[in-house]
Amino acid sequence: MPVIVETCVDQSKDLKLISLYDFLSEKGKLADPFYRLEHQEEDMQKKKEAEPVLVRLQRFSDVRHSDDYTLNKALRSCLRNQKKRVAEEETVCRSMGLGLRLLPKSEEDSAAAKRVKFSSRFEKNKKEKRAVITGTSIFPEQSSSSAAAKKRLELESKRRQIKAIAASNLLTAGIKPSSWSQPSVSTVGTKRIPVTARIR
Question: Does the reported pTM lie above 0.70?
Answer without folding.
Answer: no
